[in-house]
Design goal:
Layout lengths: L1 H21 L2 H12 L8 H9 L2 E5 L4 E3 L7 E7 L2 E6 L5 E7 L4 E2 L13 E4 L3 E7 H10 L1 H30 L1 H18 L9
Antiparallel strand pairs: 1-8, 2-7, 3-6, 3-8, 4-5, 4-7
Helix pairs in contact: 2-3, 3-5, 4-5, 5-6
């Protein structure tokens, strides 16, 4: 078994080197960045290549908004260079900073799976370049290469699952584990109820 595993890993490394020689430097740079993003770290080289090939690059000026709270969400962004801050309006409508993101950090990932409204406003702190990956891209990728599409979807599911566990732990430390579980059950029930009557199978 260990011999077979060694041969398999050797084949993966060889395939990776061959792939690396056949891609342009720009794609290689994007692959390198994505491989450092926790969401994509477990993807194979071929999947990273496919993903890098269909990402959209855009540069925003200082203080320019990428999107606003309650906008329709289409997908996620990865900060390639610069800085983005996430904001949310308080009771008076004043924008309050939630988080500041730098190179390699991801945001907006929930919208990659469904048409969730944006839960925050995103604004460039400095001149900032981001990589965008959107639901139509994931659909196209899944049709073109179902195995890679499944890898990306599974990676996103793992990422969101880990985040949910951490959220439950945080609520437990404040409100107690029993209340945390009750809140999770209530949220699940509400989420399931919101899908009643929604069209399925494209209808």
């Amino acid at each position: 078994m260990s011999i077979l595993r060694s041969l398999y890993r050797g084949g993966q490394r060889l395939a990776g080197r061959v792939l690396q020689r056949t891609i342009d430097q720009r794609t290689a740079d994007i692959m390198s960045l994505l491989s450092e993003v926790p969401l994509f770290q477990e993807l194979q080289q071929t999947a990273l290549h496919e993903l890098a090939d269909i990402t959209h690059q855009r540069t925003y000026r200082r203080d320019e908004f990428l999107y606003y709270e309650n906008d329709p969400g289409m997908g996620l962004y990865v900060v390639e260079q610069g800085s983005v801050r996430l904001l949310m309006g308080d009771a008076d409508g004043t924008l309050q900073e939630l988080q500041k993101l730098g190179t390699g950090q991801v945001f907006g990932e929930l919208s990659l799976l469904d048409s969730f409204k944006r839960m925050e406003t995103a604004q460039a702190v400095t001149e900032t370049t981001v990589l965008g990956f959107f639901r139509p891209d994931l659909s196209m990728l899944s049709m073109r290469n179902p195995q890679v599409g499944a890898q990306v979807t599974a990676a996103l599911a793992r990422y969101l699952a880990h985040r949910q566990v951490e959220l439950i732990n945080m609520i437990s430390s404040d409100a107690g584990p029993l209340q945390a579980r009750r809140m999770l059950i209530e949220a699940s029930t509400t989420a399931l109820g919101s899908t009643v009557g929604r069209p399925t199978n494209g209808r």
